[in-house]
């Protein structure tokens, strides 16, 4: 399934592949990489509150700032599995974490199969990247909050996403 009109880069429309998920939908299971040759299966997250920070590439300004912001928030909110996922290679993600001394986020790479991107509807066909987005998933394995940032070159609404997460933890 391809969707247009929901996402752009500096006004140029881009195509998203996959369904348009919304609050109340079951969180799709997916596979990704937690390191080079180290597969990750999302079934290990079942029954946990999780926050997905989805970025095009941690090596860009907005993605870097966005991921660092959620790393700061992870230090304040316990009981959450904080996950950043992109199509960056596992080596690039590890290098970025080492350079920024980030140790409190689970960094996942969707570089090979784009399984997360397609199942969560955020794979950008023209670029082979993931669309900037946020997903909050509850212990019931249902999506509680979705934010697709309509313009790739824009920051997400941090406060609204964090408020949704805090409501889920209350």
Textual characterization of the structure:
It is built from four helices and eleven strands. It has one domain: Glutaredoxin. The chain has 170 residues and is α+β, with helices and mostly antiparallel strands. The longest helix is centred in the middle third of the chain and has 14 residues. Helix content is 25%, strand content 31%. The strands form three sheets. A five-stranded mixed beta sheet has the order 7-6-5-10-11. The chain has a four-stranded antiparallel beta sheet with strand order 1-2-8-9. A two-stranded antiparallel sheet has the order 3-4. It starts with a strand and ends with a helix. The protein is globular and about 40 Å long. The mean pLDDT is 96.
